[in-house]
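DM from R.C. (forwarded with permission)

"hey, sorry to bug you on a friday — could you get me a structure for this? deadline for the figure draft is monday and I only need the backbone to look sensible"
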Amino acid sequence: MVKLKTIIVDDEPLALGVLKSWLVEFPEIELVAECKNGREAIDATLELNPDLMFLDIQMPGKNGFEVVKELQNDIMPMVVFVTTHQQYALDAFDLHAVDYVPKPLDEERLQRAVKRAIERYEASQLLGDNKIPVIGAIDSILERAEFKQIEEDVPEIVESSSKKIAINDSGKMVLVDVNDIEWVDAAGDYMCVHANGNTHIMRSTLKELLNKLDQDVFMRIHRSTIVNLNRVQEIKHHAKGDYFLTLSCGERLKISRNYNDIVKAFRERNK
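My reply, with the result:
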């Protein structure tokens, strides 16, 4: 079984405690250090050579992005950014972070982040490299500094023979065919649009995006998740009335009890 040496970094004791209490429940996670600031995070990384770091962005002294910049490629662990300031979601993905977890912390989002970290670690092992560096666009991010707000980017549907969404992703306009969208998860006012194995980050609310999609095909399964019903491979019932669905891309997602309409819709389609 994968066992990821993990460091958690947050200047807020309460957030650090919550993060620790949830992460110790994962058998794949081995917590090796708790850090209260960027300097401690750098020292712990140099000493312990961790596989994974849960890193708060907004901290006194060195912020999370400055921690990433100071660490070298060959010792940089995989990173999951954690922060209240959701305008940094786009920056986190620019750095090829494993995931971005908004505050207040949500256990399902944390589970997804751990799953993605394990998948990335296993993929890197197959490639003969036990770390995938986070360093990438760090200088340009720090130059934007004083943490300015990212401009509004509400998606537009482009009419053509097949409908496409125009997404301003990292400064580039990308046209994504709506039929290729497998699922969408929200990080505050940012959407992670998963399509054909790629993840596109856009600024929008889930409601705004859903209003521009065919709601007979795209349905909510959670307050922060939409799935393409055409990409649902199976839905299984579990204990305590819970349902889990599996998409054709292999992603497995839990259906919130408030959104069980998708179970009925799936059954109707497959009669």
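R.C.: lifesaver. The chain has two domains: 4-143, 156-269.
me: no worries. The first strand starts at residue 4 and ends at 9.
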